[in-house]
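Go through this:
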Amino acid sequence: MHTNCVIAALQASPTIAWPYPHWQLQDVLPAPVTMALMAWRPGARFIGGDSGGQRAGRNGQRLFITPSLRATSPALDRLARLFDARCTRDMFTTRCAARLENTSLRLELCLDTDGFWLEPHTDIGAKRLTLLISLSMGAQAADWGTDIMTAEGMPVARASGVFNSGLLFIPSAQSWHGFVPRPLNGVRRTLIVNYVGPEWQATGELAAPPVHAKTGQSAWATGTECATGLYSGTKRF
């Protein structure tokens, strides 16, 4: 049986109900994609520590997988096709009650160093789904996962920072999370996967043209990637 690895990871992950529904996934991405993300060396200005507790503090020094970048990297194009595929979107809808109609895919690679922290926030707004995939290496990286918090900002659990594990949740008024300051003795590498609604203004951050600007149907709507591109031969995508 040919398996989409994102779907397989989600199917194998039970729903954790408290303090809000979330899923902790393992082996989220195929090896060629993780290799491409690990090999991406964008330059020192894209690697940073303290940004005031918000990723927006590094605007202008952030990394997004855009159509132009996809055109230069088959592995990164494969990554975008994997998450934009109809079967993947359908699984998020069925398993997580995500509302992904008329949403666009946003993929950001974050490179954090010592001094980094994130204040408690929910992602509520234009983001319809958040998946944080850990891509850090080293003995201490397992402790570099996202902190799951209460509405008061109290950390109550920590997602795994193990390589190629992921924390998935549907943004809501309860989905508080952040990153409590702690030593980072290397680069904390994270892929953030979001599906964003048509009200998202920063369209230059998207992995494909925004849904409302597309002509015809996207690949996920036609299902071609599920039928051929993601289920080719016996390989696990």
About this structure: The mean pLDDT is 89. The two ends are 12 Å apart (CA to CA).
